[in-house]
Every structure is written in C-alpha cells, then in structure tokens.
Fold this protein.
Amino acid sequence: MDQGNYSRVAEFVLLGLCSSWKLQYFFFVLFNFLYIAIVLGNLLIVLTVISEPALHTPMYIMLGNLSVLDVFLATYATPKMIHDFLYEPKTISFEGCMAQIFLLHVFAGGEMVLLVAMAYDRYVAICKPLHYTTIMNLYKCTGLVVGSWVIGIMHSLSQLAFTINLPFCGPNIVDSYYCDLTLVIKLACTDTYVPELLMLLDSGLMGVTSFLLLLISYTVILITVQHHSSVGRAKAHSILTAHITVVTLFFGPCIFIYAWPFSNFPVDKVLSVFSTVFTPILNPIIYTLRNKEMKSAMHKLKTRYINSQSSSYLITVVQYLIQLLTLSIWPLENWLPLYIFGGAF
C-alpha cells in the first residue's frame, strides 16, 4: 500500500476482558480494590525504606525501586481498564495507545533489569560477604538503579520507533483491555512481518538475556550456600525463596506470551492481568513476609505515626496496611474502611 495515501485511525476500540455486564460490574469492584491495595502496599514499602536508616542498604534501596516500578506497571493500564468496565464503547486515542505501549515497555523492561541487579546484589552478599560493602557501595547501587530505568526507556523507544510510523488506516479493534503491541502491529495496513520480527527480537533478547543472567546468578548462589553453616544456609534460602518466587511470577507470563507472540489465545488476557495487577500486589507481600528487618521497620513506622500524628484516620490506614503485609489479624470487615478511603480518590 502507498503509505502516502492513507488516513490514520484516530482511535482504537478495546474489547476488554469480557462482554458480560455482570462480570464487568464484579471486575470493576475487584480491580478497583486491587489497584488501591497495590498503590498503598507498595508505597508503604517505599515509605518504610525511606524512613528507616537501617534499610538504607543496596538490597532495600532496590526493593524500594521495585515497588515504585510495580506501582507504575499497575497504573499504565489498570485505571483505564477499571473505567471501561462501566462505559461503552471502550476506546482509546491513537496517542493514548502509543503512550500505553511506551509506558508498558519502560516499566516492564526496567523491572527485568532491576531484578537482575537485585540478583547480583544477593550474589555479592552471599558469595563474597567480606567484600560486599566495597563492591556494592552507594555509587554502584545508584548506577544499577538508574541503569535499569535507562535501559527500560531505551528498550521502549526501540519498540515504539518502528510502531508509531506504521500505516494504521482502517482496522482498529484490539482484543484486549489495553494496547498490546503484538495485537496493535497486526492492525497496520501493510506487511507487518519485519516489524513483528523486530519486536520479537528486541523483547526476546532482553527477556532471554535477563532470565539467563538470573538463572546463572541463583544457580551459583545455591551452590555456594551449601558450604555455609546451617544458620547461614537457612537465612540465604529464605532470601532466595522470596527472590526466585518474584522472578517466576514476573517472567512466567512473559515467557508464555512471547512464545506465541502473534497468536491470540484467551489465556493471554489472564496472563496480562496477572503481570500487571497480581504480580505488583504479590511482590510486597512476598518480600515482607519473609523479611524480619522489613517487619521490624514497619512496626517502628507504625509506632512513630501513633506517637506523632493526630489524624486517627491516617493511623488506622497505616495500621491496616502493616497488618496486611505482615499477615497480622485481618478479618474481612477490616477491609471496608480501607476501600472507602481509596474510593475517595
């Protein structure tokens, strides 16, 4: 097709998760609640890391940045999805669609690299403990964190560069709740073999490289801890279990989706929701449940708020969040005030 003679589509139509109005009402309440929990839970971790000097170490600085990325990863599409549960038609402008694609790859790419950096930090701490403070100094930690953002942005720009100039002249229906790059590319009014190949090579290279580095790091660590004392081995296993669980939750759906990148399976929507909603809410729970230092810091934070804040409502919210993340008593009726608090926004 002559790319000089086409009218670019102004918007895309999103088919969403389902067509049943009953299910959409249910999903509206469910995902509204989950999104509020994601934001508050991850921000609690960020606040805890910032406010507790004992957590100003590379491991917790990276964990705080992981929480920031999780909030952004849940935010690029989830609020739009929640809004669309109640409105028809579910449309998004061309510019908004390109923005979603850009933000998804920035945050997902940045999180991949950050998980590799966190694995490297654990490798140095466990395999070279005497040199840890020298190797993982503040400058190295800052460089790894900033590098994860820079690589995420560069990865996203490379994906967007060959997508934004494609001729979208007619078909505009995307069978998803957000602008999935693999589905959007297929709507172009031209042969998409080369763009599809470039997208697959770009994302595949980054994903496979990150996964292999993680696999090598954790394999070396697991071999090394076998020579530690029983106490040291138990502590290392506890930390590694949390890290490996998060890596599995993050990379599992990605590997499945990109194994058949241009085939649209119903399970793809489920895996996309898992990556952008459930993984960000599970990460803070996984890292805090098995981490005594984080639990202790959260307890100090709660005590500090009780002693210094006059707002009983804020104190209640902080207490509820800390109870949630540390598996304290959390009966069902205690969720209602938190939901009301979030609904105010």
Summary: DSSP finds 13 helices and three strands in the chain. Strands lie at 11-14, 91-93, 173-174. The longest helix spans residues 94-127. Residues 130 and 177 are 49 Å apart (CA to CA).
